[in-house]
Amino acid sequence: MINNIKRINLNHSFIFFLFCNIISLIAFKAKNFSISPLICLLFILVIGVSHGSLDHIKGKRLLKIFDIKNVLFFYVSYILLAIFIILIWVLLPAISLLLFLVVASYHFGKEDTQFLTTNNNLINQLLFFFKGSLIILAPMFFHFNETVAIYKFLLIEDEAFYTILDYIETNKILLIGIVLSTLSSVLLFIKEFEIKKFVIFLDYFSIIILNYYLSPLVAFTLYFCFLHSLRHTITLIFEIDNFDFNSGLIKFLKKALPLTILTAIFCLISLFFLNNIYDLNSSILKVIFIGLASLTFPHILLEYLLEKYEKQSN
Q: Is the pTM for the entire model greater than 0.85?
């Protein structure tokens, strides 16, 4: 199973790398090439969100460990945590954003890489964080003003926050962060070396290419949907059926469809109400990033608890 996942992910990373080069060539030639925020939102709702749409199944596994029979306990807890994250963001947007960026860095680094290693020690956890931080740092490094503009759309009006960002950009701290992310990729590559670990460098250059040629929102959307989410989906498919990938894919789509549709409906309803207060693009950015934050925290917490207690039960 592990070797199959590694082989498929290597092929997936190579195809994604070629895709990034084609997109970058189009962007370079077209000059004004872009994808509208609404299309980005649709991509994220259809492809991106689906990689967490089996959380209700994982939640049932967690309830079984705790010997809780009422599945409603999971749904209520999950939804309340998501709502709590949104409320905290409204009250403390700058702190919420910083926390989200830190958590997202670790989450992206871990889920994009952990299939390549069996060792989950503290050093690897730090390497995952620095590797994943490239997703956060690259758009700021190549398109600082556009990235800051997105932050302003996310309810962040604290001038001290932007003063810190200016200091980070002026004093080359972003470059230092990217160097650390590069070194983490190198270390993860050479530890327990095998040829399939070229996935790490294919992903690294894909992220750099996307963020160099494309706007921060488009670069993030393509990464999140077509690299991060598809990679996690591949792992879920093998968990469902590790003998027949096509059969696992069909079962995954059937299981993922209900929550994916439900999440999409909630996001579109939120967009409708926000659009009565803000302009469409601003509303879309709020739905994408604040919405993702509200889903990411319970998703990561669920993954952590399940990994921790299933290991203990084994």
A: yes
